[in-house]
Amino acid sequence: MSAIIHGAGAATALSTFNSKKLVARSRTNLPGRSKRCIVAAGSDDGSKSFGSSSLSLRHSHKLIANNAVATKADTSATTGHELLLFEALQEGLEEEMDRDPHVCVMGEDVGHYGGSYKVTKGLADKFGDLRVLDTPICENAFTGMGIGAAMTDLRPVIEGMNMGFLLLAFNQISNNCGMLHYTSGGQFTIPVVIRGPGGVGRQLGAEHSQRLESYFQSIPGIQMVACSTPYNAKGLMKAAIRSENPVILFEHVLLYNLKEKIPDEEYICNLEEAEMVRPGEHITILTYSRMRYHVMQAAKTLVNKGYDPEVIDIRSLKPFDLYTIGNSVKKTHRVLIVEECMRTGGIGASLTAAINENFHDYLDAPVMCLSSQDVPTPYAGTLEEWTVVQPAQIVTAVEQLCQ
Amino acid sequence: MATSFSATLPLHGSQENRLLLPPIRLAPPPPSFLGSTRSLTVPSSRRLYHAHAARRSPVVGVQEVVKEKKVTNSLLITKEEGLVLYEDMILGRSFEDMCAQMYYRGKMFGFVHLYNGQEAVSTGFIKLLTQSDSVVSTYRDHVHALSKGVSARAVMSELFGKVTGCCRGQGGSMHMFSKEHNMLGGFAFIGEGIPVATGAAFTSKYKREVLKQDCDDVTVAFFGDGTCNNGQFYECLNMAALYKLPIIFVVENNLWAIGMSHLRSTSDPEIWKKGPAFGMPGVHVDGMDVLKVREVAKEAVTRARRGEGPTLVECETYRFRGHSLADPDELRDAAEKAKYAARDPITALKKYLVENKLASEGELKTIEKKIDELVEEAVEFADASPQPGRSQLLENVFADPKGFGIGPDGRYRCEDPKFTEGTAQV
């Protein structure tokens, strides 16, 4: 069964998945659009093959990212190297640390332990204990320390061992990170990157399964991005480090072992742009992080049923890329948002408001938003599955919207 | 802990430090409620304790230092230094008095916290620093900014909310920043500046050890007694001692956190003791005496520059005014206020300078007049300065304004002309 899906998926994906080529073309055609993204030159063939094969194979494994999937279709790609998402993050971080000696890392167990998800593995040996600082367990203070260091010319990357722990650093993130550039009249910049794994994992319990993007989204002065593939993980990590703004990079606990072939050449991903995953005609599905994979799995089913969904990974949670999203809405006239965030006050809620405000005239149906239930994530596997949006629900929602 | 106040130790100290009540003879169990009407008992014997704690560190009791100097017949300061200290304290006092006047005349609004009475701490520490050293403060930050070198004009304009303010009018009383003078703020929530100060000290160490630069910059973090019950304080004491950061934690213990007496809120009111618990020296000093503060500061700053790590300095001081200009200040005992008013740091320094023939009354009067004119001029400048225009609304939210994102038309929002006008919806 999985092989059939693979075949069908690969066929459709190969034919429609010119996403990187499409986007690259559309980017250059737009007037007044600053080209911040350096996309690797040979991306066409490489992206097609790694995109389709790895996506479909991921689906066949039911998105259990603990098993690293080998992509056999990569024989067609001639350049690039294959790695797991956490390795991509590490690569991006290491390249930036090599490039600029002011870049440093601080967090719990980032040094000798190599990071609880191995994102900083080997970096302490290479760069030393001060550049890859093992902090005591004091999120508020070491986040503030990172901010103070950023104000005085360093560029720290602060790791929250789990994004949920950053609730303890809320004082520093909201008051200092977001505000000091403004309240100092522009005198001090805070080029920090705050990153860590969040999201609902496998029975990690309520406190370790939080989605902090909804809490942070109102803080003025910060940017938030969420990575979902090794390609954009590395690209976003590098862009975030180079940005003069404070950036919060959301990773997902279940996506660290995704495998993909990424370019050998240096590239960064634009922090403010969304990613076209699958162009389509009938409906726009907006998603980010792990839900991208639930959506793509649902997309397989939908394609078999004759629908043509356009899937966009919004990537930039704050600010929203209203251009990519708007173009899509203008084309399909129907929007479904699929997210892992809570229903109340989540990213989806803000996105719904933004779309209604800006593109109301182009909608043929109300914007539908599928979010996680407003419950603390239960431990029990069955209950946990029901708090999060599953592909079957996505299929139903699309069918409903497209009536 | 309570029993460390042993009554068997001899009491030293000059008359002015004698208390209204005899020292507490604490017998277990200690009283569970310390009302605000109780004076803080500061047995001078306590000053010997930091010699105790200081056994592990080279910081010597101030009294010993002062005694020593007197014995060798040399003064603690030269004439030039004395005049600099005097001018700085007069500037602080005059400026704050003017702030009060301006506030009641409706030139500034919101929360304004004045520093009257605490000038010795700011002057004592900051006048030892170089321009590249950093200072981090709290909402009671006007005088720290002035001592660090921010012009009175810039601070007054900021308070008036004018464009010419040090933060373009965007920060206000509680957010005095200066990149040029390395004044790292001005923070409204207590305790949130301490980690920032720790970060600045971290950068100093990083520059030395990773970037191999010649950097011995120190950071001084000022905060109050109320902050010393806050988690961020302890977290930073730990990290500073652990990483041996060049930072000095200065507690301006003025005994009151708005209306909460330090004794009512703290299990062990002796804050200097918390330093040794984290592995750094803890020093207690009379914060109403600028020369004593300066001596302790010299030692702490030298320690930090040499790479020996942080110091915790508790300055016993007092604010002559209420917590803020909105505080009716009804809880504090009149006798307590009078006691500290008699220890006005400016009067004390004046007396010292004149008695030791370092300056004449005339010279000091000249300084006072000069400062009066400076402050007046600052007010005039602030008055004449323009208020921020609409176009300033969206500036400085992001260092890179691309952070506002891409609008529906495909352009970055910051490229929208309405953005620079301040009328864009972001």
TrEMBL record, chain A:
MF annotations from Gene Ontology: metal ion binding; pyruvate dehydrogenase (acetyl-transferring) activity
Major localization listed first in the record, in broad terms: plastid
Catalysis: reaction(s): N(6)-[(R)-lipoyl]-L-lysyl-[protein] + pyruvate + H(+) = N(6)-[(R)-S(8)-acetyldihydrolipoyl]-L-lysyl-[protein] + CO2
Domain Transketolase-like pyrimidine-binding: 83-258
EC number: 1.2.4.1
Any GO CC annotation of this UniProt entry: chloroplast
Keyword set includes Oxidoreductase: yes
InterPro entries according to UniProt: THDP-binding (IPR029061), Transketo_C/PFOR_II (IPR009014), Transketolase-like_Pyr-bd (IPR005475), Transketolase_C (IPR033248)
Keywords: Chloroplast, Metal-binding, Oxidoreductase, Plastid, Potassium, Pyruvate, Thiamine pyrophosphate, Transit peptide
Obligatory cofactor(s): thiamine diphosphate
Location of the protein in the cell: Plastid, Chloroplast
Function of the molecule: The pyruvate dehydrogenase complex catalyzes the overall conversion of pyruvate to acetyl-CoA and CO(2). It contains multiple copies of three enzymatic components: pyruvate dehydrogenase (E1), dihydrolipoamide acetyltransferase (E2) and lipoamide dehydrogenase (E3).
SUBUNIT field: Tetramer of 2 alpha and 2 beta subunits.
Protein known as: pyruvate dehydrogenase (acetyl-transferring)
Organism encoding this protein: Brassica carinata
TrEMBL record, chain B:
Coiled-coil regions listed in the entry: 357-384
The keyword Coiled coil appears for this protein: yes
Annotated GO biological process: pyruvate decarboxylation to acetyl-CoA
Keywords of this entry: Coiled coil, Oxidoreductase, Pyruvate, Thiamine pyrophosphate
Superkingdom, natural source: Eukaryota
Catalytic reaction equation(s): N(6)-[(R)-lipoyl]-L-lysyl-[protein] + pyruvate + H(+) = N(6)-[(R)-S(8)-acetyldihydrolipoyl]-L-lysyl-[protein] + CO2
Segments forming domain Dehydrogenase E1 component: 88-388
Its biological purpose: The pyruvate dehydrogenase complex catalyzes the overall conversion of pyruvate to acetyl-CoA and CO(2). It contains multiple copies of three enzymatic components: pyruvate dehydrogenase (E1), dihydrolipoamide acetyltransferase (E2) and lipoamide dehydrogenase (E3).
Subunit structure: Tetramer of 2 alpha and 2 beta subunits.
Protein name (database record): Pyruvate dehydrogenase E1 component subunit alpha
Organism: Brassica oleracea var. oleracea
